[in-house]
Write a structure and sequence with these properties.
Structural class: alpha+beta
Strand content: 15-25%
Order of helices and strands: HHHEEE
Number of strands: 3
Shape: rod-shaped
Distance between the termini: 107 Å
Strand order of the largest sheet: 1-2-3
Radius of gyration: 33 Å
Helix content: 55-70%
């Protein structure tokens, strides 16, 4: 049988290791806390960027709608170049007109595409399109 003193001598290195391990654990809560704060800050930043992109896309859709409607109304009233008016309306709404297509004869449909700068690192701009024109009478 192993004597008590021999057992204590055998377990002494394990005990010292456990004490050293316990002492090295001090301050680890601070590191975990800092890591959690960093994760939360990253999530808030990502959500803020996504919200900003959604708002700018809605603004681009509104600018495209207004530009298309203005161009269709100008074309209906006999203006020669309604796309120049659509470009001016888009510029007035902080957007840039990408394309403008007129379909049909006098009083046809107008399709306008606009782009808007976002300012978010991964999404530089958003694009929106709109179509306007008279509806057919049955």
């Amino acid at each position: 049988m192993i004597a008590r003193s021999q057992l204590q001598r055998l377990l002494l290195p394990i005990r010292r290791f456990c004490i050293r391990l316990h002492r090295s654990d001090k301050g680890s809560g601070t590191v975990v806390g800092v890591a959690l704060v960093m994760v939360a800050a990253t999530l808030v930043s990502v959500m803020s960027g996504a919200g900003h992109v959604a708002v700018r896309h809605a603004q681009a859709r509104s600018a495209a709608d207004l530009a298309a409607f203005s161009a269709a109304l100008a074309w209906r009233n006999g203006r020669r170049d309604p796309c120049s008016l659509a470009g001016a309306v888009a510029e007035g709404n902080n957007a840039s007109m990408v394309s403008c297509h007129m379909e049909g004869e006098h009083m046809g449909d107008v399709e306008v595409s606009v782009t808007m700068h976002v300012g978010v690192p991964l999404v530089s701009k958003v694009v929106a399109s709109a179509r306007a024109g008279p509806s057919a009478c049955d």
